[in-house]
Amino acid sequence: MSDSDALWELAAGHGGVYRLELPVKTGPPVEAMLADEGWRVAVVAEVSRTRDFYAALRTALDLPEWTGSNLDALWDVLTDLREPTALVWRGADSYAVARPQRWSQLLEVLTERSTQDPPFAVVLA
């Protein structure tokens, strides 16, 4: 899927997992575009360790520090979302290379959540 197709899907409010070749060369950053379309936007910066991913996710979603750092806790947090939410994960490839098995597991959970309501999208940037 091209960047423009992915952005069209996101603008239409469709959840899913999207890989974008960012930065978008023209126009506002993808986070601003998503916010303008009514998405709650949570940004996770580039990380290469699992504990750093969970820490960044807690910050991005404004979760309490005691939120668990495992796949079950991730699922619970994501299914508790009550508004359309887009998770923009900058430098996701760094994590995928550093932790391929854990990446596969995380991606499975994120993908499964993206099929449910309210809309949830993951933008891998």
Reading off the top of the CATH hierarchy, the class is best stated as Alpha Beta
Topology pattern, helix = H, strand = E: HEHEHHEHHE
**Based on DSSP secondary structure assignment, what is the total number of beta strands?**
4
Distance between the amino and carboxyl termini? 14 Å
List keywords for this structure.
alpha/beta, single chain, Barstar (barnase inhibitor) domain-containing protein, Barstar-like_sf, globular, Barnase, Chain D
Written description of the protein model:
The protein has 125 residues and is an alpha/beta fold. It has helices at 3-11, 30-36, 50-60, 71-79, 92-98, 100-113, and strands spanning 16-19, 40-44, 85-89, 120-124. Helix 5 crosses helix 6 (100-113). The longest helix is centred in the last third of the chain and has 14 residues, at 100-113. The radius of gyration is 14 Å and the shape is globular.
Give the gist of this structure.
Pfam families: Barstar. Residues 45-123 form the Barstar (barnase inhibitor) domain. The protein is an alpha/beta fold.
Layout of secondary structure:
Layout: H1 3-11, E1 16-19, H2 30-36, E2 40-44, H3 50-60, H4 71-79, E3 85-89, H5 92-98, H6 100-113, E4 120-124
Parallel strand pairs: 1-4, 2-3, 3-4
